[in-house]
Design brief:
206 residues; mainly alpha
Length: 206
């Protein structure tokens, strides 16, 4: 029973959904982030964003699974993890450059590009070390929250505590299903939080 719940949590907070969670979380709860969004465009852009950055790579990954190009999607081996990461990076890059043509505000691009950089670094690390992408995902959310506080001196403690609890929940779930060791989970969280926060604070999108 506990393992089943942990597996469900792992699916709900799959790294593929990181950009969606990050953007919608802070657009809904953080007034500093809302300043950069055009409400009239939000609905249509959200559908396009979800379609390209989430649905399309998800469909392609399951296609690769059906054709035998990759193994179990929920806990793939190193080769499969690398293939999945590369697929995600390609679709994220497509999403980024398509949205770049729309000329939204820089905070959107910096947040999304920070996610891309974090995943790219984790993909390279994965050649030698099985870093937790789930840890990277929830760590990225925390990093974005901390960066927005640094940039705008705006912090909601309820959201911060929620993210800390989420990190514990997701990390524990990945440990229960034996997908990662504790150090792999912690390193993923640290990488995600550090890279996303650093890119939001210091980065410049292309």
């Amino acid at each position: 029973m506990i393992r089943s719940i942990a597996q469900v949590i792992s699916y709900l907070f799959h790294p593929l959904a990181l950009p969606i969670y990050a953007i919608f979380l802070f657009s809904a709860t953080n007034s500093a982030f809302q300043l950069y969004l055009d409400p009239e465009k939000t609905g249509k852009l959200a559908l396009i964003f979800i379609g390209i950055s989430f649905v399309a790579p998800l469909v392609y990954i399951f296609y690769l699974k059906q054709t035998g190009a990759i193994d179990n999607v929920s806990d793939p081996n190193r080769k499969s993890r690398l293939i999945v990461s590369i697929v995600v990076l390609v679709f994220y890059a497509i999403t980024y450059f398509l949205f770049k043509r729309i000329q939204l505000n820089d905070v959107f691009y910096d947040l999304f590009f920070g996610v891309i950089v974090a995943i790219a670094i984790a993909t390279i690390i994965s050649f030698w070390y099985k870093i937790s992408m789930h840890g990277l995902s929830v760590g990225g959310l925390l990093g974005a929250q901390c960066a927005l506080f640094f940039l705008h001196n705006y912090l909601r403690m309820d959201i911060l505590l929620l993210l800390i609890l989420l990190i514990g929940l997701v990390g524990t779930s990945r440990a229960i299903v034996k997908a990662h060791t504790n150090d792999q989970i912690y390193s993923g969280v640290l990488l995600g939080a550090t890279v996303v926060a650093a890119y939001l604070i210091y980065g410049t999108s292309f």
